Amino acid sequence: MIITAVLAAVLLLVGGGITTAILVKGDGERAAPEREAADSSVIAQKSAEAVKYGDVAVIDACTVMPGTLLEEIGFRDAAHGWHSQVDVPRSVPVDDATVEGQSDAISTCLYESTAEGGIERFTLSVRQRPFNHMATAGYQGKNDTPVTAAGLKGFMSPGLSPDSFDARLVSADGNAQVNLGASRMSNVKEITDPEATFMKLLEGVAANLAKGAQGRTVHVHTGRYESVPNACDILSTERFQEITNGKDSGVVEADYYERESFDSAQNKDFYSNLQECRRLSPEWFAAGKRSQGKALKISLRTYRDAGMAVGDAQDCDPDSPSRTITGEAVMSAEKIGDVAACGYLQGDSPTISFVAGRTQVKLTGYGDWAPDDLRAYVRDFTPVAQKMADDVRKAIG
């Protein structure tokens, strides 16, 4: 078909934060609307003061390996993709600290590309005395080679592929160790020498480690999401302890997606940003006590407006494709939030889902303290979810 008129009219429809151009062809047929691009910088990394865990000034993994360092060596997509962080968000008094030679690192940082086709990933963990056991700090495996970076000594190991590497370094005082992993680096076509690039990254990490605790990295929302607080502020220490009737370890696990995501259903577009935070009780860090541990995760998917949040609420829709993945949902008999609320399993962990304002909220319990039976979980968690719905609506709108 020959189009005689490229553009007969342009109609701008503004609604729900979306601007769509409708192109009309010469024969009166309407072309598909041009979709608005999702925001690429919803969350930014900022610096904050260092914190203490008991008497330990915590070395923050994302401060040792900031996103800017990844950008410098050529990995912009990973630096601005998915960020996963384990950290101590605020100083914990000595009496509340759980320093007992824990097995898990006190701080970790992960970056992974979320660009189309992006598979490169970088991880860094920090282990510190007395929080962590350091007995293997100087151990050399049979495939390890000695390495020195920025004056710090350690060992380097080959990864699972030729463009993947692992290394560990020990601080000059022997009280801290970092483990650095990089995988699938050659996925970025400009990286022609993965090993040399890894060594540049290791040098930067070593230089930052040598400085000791130099603050911590926080993730803050920007642009149209600027008013959205951190998920770990919504699931506060006080709220965690109230819900679980347990003690908060002070260590949190959080995930952030720097870019806005996009979903489309029934000729409607939905734009949102996801962040998650999981708080843990002290028992969670001791292998022999983990069965007694309590963990609770909050997932916040915040949309551009409340209409999008309601329109894209699929968890509790019996006709939703997600039901084939998570199985049958148990509906809440009481009102929670703004639309139907329900419970279902994420893996083997019970989850309750609801919408509050412009945010879809999920609360997932881990450990024996949370009822495995979905009906019991929904019943017991309904008062909790109602409080959290009020918290989210007040904080985000």
Radius of gyration: 24 Å
Strand content: 25-35%
Contiguous uncertain segments of 5+ residues: 1-26
The total strand number stands at 21
**Discrete helix count:** 9
How much helix, percentage-wise, in residues? 10-25%
Q: Could you give the distance between the termini? A: 49 Å
Average of the residue pLDDT scores: 87
Largest sheet: 15 strands, antiparallel
Order of helices and strands: EEEEEHHHEEEEEEEHEHHEEEEHHEEEEH
Content-based structural category: alpha+beta
What is the general shape? globular
Helices and strands, with pairings:
Elements lengths: L9 E6 L2 E6 L19 E6 L3 E2 L2 E2 L3 H4 L2 H6 L3 H4 L2 E6 L19 E6 L8 E8 L16 E5 L2 E7 L6 E6 L5 E8 L10 H17 L5 E6 L9 H4 L2 H8 L7 E6 L3 E5 L2 E13 L14 E9 L2 H6 L11 H4 L3 E2 L10 E5 L2 E8 L2 E8 L7 H23 L1
Antiparallel strand pairs: 1-2, 3-13, 4-5, 6-7, 6-14, 7-8, 8-12, 9-10, 10-11, 11-12, 14-16, 15-16, 16-17, 17-21, 18-19, 19-20, 20-21
What does it look like?
It is a single chain. Helices cover 19% and strands 33% of the residues. With 397 residues, the chain is an alpha+beta fold. Mean pLDDT is 87; it is low at 1-26.
